[in-house]
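Section 5.1 Outputs to date
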Amino acid sequence: MKRISAVLIAVLFVALSVEAKVDLPSVFGDNMVLQRNASVAFWGTAKASSKVTIRPSWDKSKVVVESDADGKWFARVQTPEAGGPYTVTVSDGEKLVLDNVLIGEVWFCSGQSNMEMMVKGSKGQPVNGGIDAVLDAKPETPIRMLNVRKCVSATPKEDCDAIWLEHTQDAVANTSAVAYFFARDLYRALNVPIGIIVSAWGGTLIEPWMSRDVFEREFKNYDLSFLDQPELPKLPQYQPCTLFNGMVHPLIPYTIKGWIWYQGESNRDMYQDYAALQTAYAAMMREKWGNPKMPFYFVQIAPYAFKGKPKGETAAMLMEAQAKSLETIPYSGMATTADIGEEWCIHPARKQEVGRRLALMALKKDYGMALDGAFAPQYDKMEVREDGKIILHFKNNDCGIGPVNENLKCFEVAGEDQIFYPAVGRVMRGYDRIEVTCPAEVKVPVAVRYAFGNYVPGVLKNGRGVAVAPFRTDNWPEKK
């Protein structure tokens, strides 16, 4: 009996020792990227009421904090200019060493299937340039990826299933194409390590990515009672808050530069609410991360024959709602896709171009690069002349609109009867205005639309190849 007791005591001692070891959430690990020149957040658990020491190898300093009665602790560590690899040692008496750590730029990447779609593409749906990106991948390239495994939850989770990966062929192939090409262009321009955290789930609405407190404060018409039930309903990934709880909350407040977002297709039938929802979503993300000016760049959904109706207007209304949210979300930008849609495929292959347009905006606005044309020109106003010609004016147009010297046939014009007819546009001298005519059918025009439909490929681009978003000058209701 004495021997058994001694064995039991030894087992209990080992178990308690293992349980007490300092522990970090999955967002911290070997191969991670930390935001440069920042006071970055570190947190985790350790022995209750114990001192936790963090020692980074980039200098001789250390940070010491004390865990609370539950063993939880939080600290901030100052990072240097970009570089690495480094180590970070975290200890409460027992050391945990994080190896191969880089210092650079970190971005969060989220959304639905067009963000989730991997560099390698999917069945019958390739990604242009994807196979070349995979073949060119080398571990020594300082781009690192953290892909968050899909998870739903009724309450905010403290951790998620994720691991930082080096720039290997397998890791690149299985990472979001939009996020990867965005990161690759940042790296090419900045020549510093880039880390991307990808949290995406195909087919999801914006509501699951938002927190409960936002709905209780701003959208009280949503029924959230299911969150208090023992089990989530079927297909919980389509319910409010579930993805924020499982796939965003565990990452907060890991220090990031900003975030990119590609979502909206699943909200197209509720376009009337989307501008308000996206505005609230952006404010929520900034509030949770404690950074009211955190950069936010999102992708306008691409033209596509939604519900088999290329000439329908539902998708165009959602595109318009996305564009309107630029007015209510400061420190933001929209990557336009009017020229890259595919009529019968909701996942356009030109993800490389989407990533490039997102990167151009960030490089200009957040990294100070002199990149005129990084942001798409926007429709400003119209004037109707006595001869019936319409002149469209544009803002944010620092390198002109084209193509020039062509008859542009993506326009429609209507009179007071609200019946639209095909019209022709031509870029005027100065490349900042477009003249639109429809003399035969509409003598007195009152409204103009450009590429305004589910699938009406746009042709207007600025001098850097960035597409002009679809727009209309009227506010007439959707025609069913």
